[in-house]
Design brief:
Elements (H helix, E strand, L loop, with lengths): L1 E7 L4 H11 L2 E14 L12 E7 L2 E7 L9 E10 L2 H10 L3 E15 L2 E8 L2 E9 L2 H10 L12 H4 L9
Antiparallel strand pairs: 1-5, 1-8, 2-3, 2-6, 3-4, 4-5, 6-7, 7-8
């Protein structure tokens, strides 16, 4: 599935939550997430022009995610994404490592996740970064429409991984 995303910084979290409620977005979870990022030749944790591999724990759910390199000629991050749910975290890590990947980064963040009409909204907070909004859609038109509905200036959206956008905040991880 194609994933089209933008990240928005310097947001009023309370106001965003109110707007999400008004459009009928449903809160799906509010929890801490642990992410393990893996690298090898052609993969990167911080360069969206390369492939990406992650194992993530969201409460009891474990998800392996692969992302293709981003399409370059867009002002939004557009990547093909494949996700697989698994039931054993340690075995998933062992499998990925046996395939030649090495763990490059482990981090946790707080996430409030909403969904509305196949659009995902995530309010993410790292301990060293103020809360930001990430919007994920399946088409550019959906991204434009939802930004209008939420009265968010789409031109303020940033493309790329959080590490690409704010590399100085992740210097200890690279």
């Amino acid at each position: 599935m194609n994933e089209i995303e933008l990240k928005f910084f310097n947001i009023d979290v309370k106001n965003i939550k109110k707007k999400l409620s008004i459009i009928g977005a449903q809160k799906k979870y509010d929890t801490f997430i642990e992410s393990n990022l893996f690298v090898k030749e052609g993969f990167s944790t911080w360069d969206s022009n390369k492939q990406f591999l992650r194992i993530r724990k969201i409460d009891a759910q474990i998800i392996i995610t692969h992302k293709d390199p981003a399409i370059k000629e867009s002002n939004m991050t557009i990547r093909q994404e494949t996700e697989v749910k698994v039931d054993d975290y340690k075995k998933a890590v062992a499998l990925v490592e046996k395939l030649g990947f090495r763990r490059a980064m482990v981090y946790s963040k707080h996430r409030i996740h909403y969904e509305w009409d196949n659009i995902h909204f995530e309010l993410d907070t790292f301990n060293h970064i103020p809360t930001y909004l990430e919007i994920e859609t399946q088409t550019k038109e959906n991204m434009k429409d939802i930004c209008l509905r939420l009265d968010i200036d789409i031109n303020q959206g940033k493309k790329g991984t959080i590490v690409e956008i704010l590399p100085e905040k992740f210097s200890n991880f690279q």
